[in-house]
Design a protein that fits this description.
Radius of gyration of chain B: 19 Å
CATH class of the largest domain in chain B: Alpha Beta
Number of helices of chain B: 4
Strand content of chain B: 35-45%
Distance between the termini of chain B: 29 Å
Shape of chain A: globular
Number of strands of chain A: 19
Helix content of chain A: 25-40%
Number of domains of chain B: 2
Largest sheet of chain B: 5 strands, antiparallel
Oligomer: heterodimer
CATH architecture of the largest domain in chain B: 2-Layer Sandwich
Number of domains of chain A: 3
Distance between the termini of chain A: 64 Å
Number of strands of chain B: 9
Structural class of chain B: alpha+beta
CATH architecture of the largest domain in chain A: 3-Layer(aba) Sandwich
Largest interface: A-B, 24 and 25 residues
CATH topology of the largest domain in chain B: Alpha-Beta Plaits
Chain lengths: 575, 168
């Protein structure tokens, strides 16, 4: 009897290798035994990173993709292993992050029979993937793998899940490794067919504006449109506000930059959105936390929307002009039709707002998150890769850590997934070994995925884990204070561990930071640390609130720049 | 959009890759937005690698536009066309089972003939009529048959095809 050269699992790994996958983040189990065995028996360029929980693996792949622009792969077993990836997949899906998630599955003849560790992961994940596959023939693996990569990385990127039953990965592979894709309904190349007429209309609308505003989002990052965007803004003399996920696509230290808009955006960015006569969104989906009350958004402005996803046009707000396609290609063409606008008075006007409503904090009166973040910005020259978790620290990091480059700011925007920051930083450090990577996390989110300290220590990753510890779920507590008569409910994290001892227990280094006077000293010590992760436990003031703030669903003009003196009505808009 | 628009009826034609799970993906696109699929016909197309779905749905036109765009984003959807305002042929088939004594039979058959129905089953006490045509025609037949004891109605749901040489 002759045995075939490869089994399904080996064929799969060959495909991943061919697609340029550098890292697989994963966790083993019964249904993926053949694939884990292939990791040992096959020579590839792929590095395997063993995580401590499947959610961590997905966030690591996410952080890797958001910092390098390349997709990574997740490999987990069936049933609970697959189910544990769900919050990670949701996070990637909401923020358009490419990745391939490979889940093991029961053998094909057991499907639907409630066999051990069987879960209908295809059904469970269906609403939160760009596409998914259940592999039913071993010989189809190469076609499915190349389709999965193509789908994940082109058009509007996103996660693709491949569910592989054990008999398929274990079965003999006798097919061709080079199979054509079969995707008659998927034509991402049309993003580069620019509608020249739409460009001319947009250029004509721009000419009429004296108070223009550019809203740059994640789509501009994903399209690598930073150079075209800089030229666009400078040629027009138009200010730019970058969304939470668009941070850095336009340098935030540039004179035309206004910082982040929206719920906790800068006062001047939000005032610019209210007062602009033209808003041009480039790769932003007009998130509910940016527009506030939809029918009041941009009432007096001509609104232009450039996006690669046709479903984003007219979804949240009606626009006056639109152009569907790749942001870089569209801006490159648009740049040939524009000239400087008469916008100097507008820029001066916004500069006055910058003077009047700067982002600020008090250095005295206890240690502030803003203070730590501001010093971190200074000490790292604004060049660190910043992975944040979700909550108050995230908003303050977005406000105070200005990014001059895309791909250095990793945050869960759409899904707002707590537990994202630290594993995302691990993925980023593996993808960008020469960069300073900081995980800025709260004490709540950090405890959701802190077990990945093992992974970081094993891989000797010099990540700085900055735990901004207020012993609270601070953002929820802020809402309870402002809108629910300060009735705290389920937000006090009494019982937090000693984070420094925790780090040491895992073999990492830890420092406590308690006094404002020590911020620079401790941060410098951490930045000088080599050879493994270092944790800073910053004991910050417990009950500080993030401002500016636009209550959910309120109009942008109802922004609170400082704590309100009267009781606020409960927000009725989105969350 | 925060404002509610008036509800309108739509007939969508969705051309999809004939693969497992496609129907789930499409159904989820509606269900996620709280939309009820009122009628659904799925069968393989002229090329068996593809299936044709005709979906009847009613709702706010802006939301339906969004659903259509979301359907078109599905990898397995080749195209999705709203034929509501097109010049297209929209037909449905219905089977009506009713109790009918020999005394009532001639009146029932007269009505059936008027609507171009076929009698596909006939017993001493019951008959099954088969009707094809627009949905309104089936509604009208049911109205006229209300004097009889109708015990079952099965409708296929609408199928649609564009007129002339344009494609559905």
């Amino acid at each position: 009897m002759t045995t075939p050269e490869l089994d399904g699992a080996q064929a799969l790994l060959k495909c991943l290798d061919k697609e340029g996958i550098e890292i697989i983040f994963g966790y083993s189990g019964g249904a993926v035994l053949p694939i884990f065995d292939a990791l040992e028996t096959l020579e590839t360029n792929i590095k395997f990173v063993l995580v401590r929980h499947e959610q961590g693996a997905v966030h690591m792949a996410d952080g890797y993709a958001r910092s390098t622009g390349k997709p990574a792969c997740v490999l987990v077993t069936s049933g609970p292993g697959a189910a544990n990836t769900i919050s990670g997949i949701l996070t990637a899906h909401m923020d358009s992050v490419p990745m391939i998630v490979i889940t093991g599955q029961q053998v094909t003849w057991m499907l639907g029979k409630d066999a051990f560790q069987e879960a209908d992961i295809l059904g469970i994940s269906m609403p939160i993937v760009k596409h998914s596959y259940l592999v039913k023939e071993t010989n189809e693996i190469p076609r499915i793998a190349s389709e999965a990569f193509y789908i994940a990385t082109t058009g509007r990127p996103g996660p693709v899940l491949i569910d592989i039953p054990k008999d398929i990965s274990q079965g003999p592979f006798t097919g061709s490794m080079d199979q054509p894709m079969d995707l008659p309904g998927y034509k991402p190349e049309s993003a580069f067919d620019i509608d020249h007429e739409a460009i001319k209309q947009i250029a004509a609308a721009l000419k009429l504006s004296t108070r223009p505003l550019i809203l740059a989002g994640h789509g501009a990052v994903l399209a690598h449109a930073e150079r075209e965007l800089l030229q666009f803004a400078e040629t027009l003399n138009a200010p730019v506000t970058g969304t939470l996920l668009g941070k850095g696509v336009f340098p935030e230290s540039h004179a035309l930059a206004l910082g982040m808009p929206g719920m906790h955006g800068t006062a001047y960015a939000n005032k610019a959105l209210v007062e602009a006569d033209l808003i041009i969104a480039i790769g932003s989906r007009f998130d509910d936390r940016i527009i506030g009350q939809a029918d009041k958004f941009g009432r007096n402005a001509t609104i232009i929307h450039i996006d690669i996803d046709p479903a984003e046009l007219n979804k949240m707000i009606k626009v006056d002009f639109q152009c569907i396609g790749d942001a870089k290609a569209i801006l490159a063409e648009l740049n040939q039709h524009i000239s400087r606008l008469d916008s100097d008075p507008w820029i001066e006007h916004l500069d006055q707002y910058k003077q009047k409503y700067p982002l600020s904090y008090q250095v005295h009166g206890g240690l502030k998150m803003q203070h730590v973040l501001d010093e971190l910005y200074d000490l790292t020259d604004g060049k660190a890769i910043m992975a944040t978790d979700v909550g108050q620290h995230q908003m303050w990091a977005a406000q105070f850590y200005k990014c001059d480059k895309p791909w250095q700011w990793l945050t869960s925007g759409g899904a707002g997934t707590m537990g994202f920051g630290f594993p995302a930083a691990i993925g980023a450090q593996l993808g960008c070994p020469d960069d300073v990577v900081v995980a800025v996390v709260g004490d709540g989110g950090f405890q959701m995925t802190l077990f990945e300290l093992s992974t970081a220590v094993l891989e000797k990753l010099p990540i700085i884990i900055l735990v901004l510890n207020n012993h609270y779920l601070g953002m929820v507590r802020q809402w309870q204070e402002l809108f629910f008569d300060n009735r705290e409910s389920g937000v006090d994290l009494d019982g937090n561990p000693d984070c420094v001892k925790l780090a040491e227990a895992y073999g990492a280094t830890g420092y406590n930071l308690k006094r404002a006077a020590d911020v620079r000293k401790i941060l410098s010590k951490a930045l000088a640390h080599k050879g493994g992760p270092v944790l800073i436990n910053a004991e910050v003031v417990k009950t500080s609130n993030v401002f500016p703030m636009i209550p959910a669903g309120a109009a942008l003009e109802d922004m609170l720049i400082e704590p309100p003196k009267t009781k606020l009505a409960k927000p009725t808009g989105s969350t | 959009m925060t404002q509610k628009n008036p509800v309108s009826q739509h007939t969508l034609s969705v051309y999809v890759a004939n693969k497992p799970g496609v129907l789930s993906r499409i159904a989820q696109t509606f269900a996620r937005r709280g939309y009820n699929i009122e009628s659904l016909v799925v069968s393989s197309g002229r090329n068996e690698q593809f299936s044709r779905m005709t979906i009847g749905v009613s709702g706010d036109p802006d939301m339906l536009e969004q659903i259509i765009k979301q359907l078109m984003k599905l990898i397995d959807v080749v195209h999705c066309i709203d034929h509501t305002f097109d010049d297209s042929v929209v037909k449905e088939l219905g089977l009506v089972k009713m109790l009918c004594s020999p005394q009532e039979r001639s009146e029932a058959l007269q009505i059936a003939e008027h609507f171009g129905c076929k009698t596909v089953d006939l017993t001493k006490t019951s008959m099954i009529l088969m009707i094809t045509g627009s949905s309104q025609k089936i509604d009208a037949l049911m109205e006229v048959l209300s004097k009889f004891e109708v015990i079952e109605l099965v409708r296929t749901g609408k199928v649609v095809m564009a007129r002339g040489d344009s494609t559905t």
